[in-house]
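User: Predict Reverse transcriptase domain-containing protein's structure from this.
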Amino acid sequence: IEIEESDKHKTAFICEFGQYEFNRIPFGLTNAPSTFQRAMNNILKTVLYKFALVYLDDIIVFSNSITHHVTHLEAVFRLLKQAGLKLKKKKCEFFKEELHYVG
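Assistant:
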């Protein structure tokens, strides 16, 4: 999530190489988790609770058949792509009958 230009100075830090400011919200900021959750809810609002749940960067897509699941996954992928978000393949699990969520 991009930080407004007028707010970037609030994230400034100094190290041996100079002073830097964040361009995107790091999770270490106090409001970062709630801001990110709100953004994810907004991105997935058309499918949220119909066949998708989201908690921060964990997204669950649920369906009652493989055919529906493929359709639901495509819809979620499309919304994420439209928002400019990318998934990391190694962090994804597909077509699971059971899973551990938030943990």
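Residues 41 and 48 are 7 Å apart (CA to CA).
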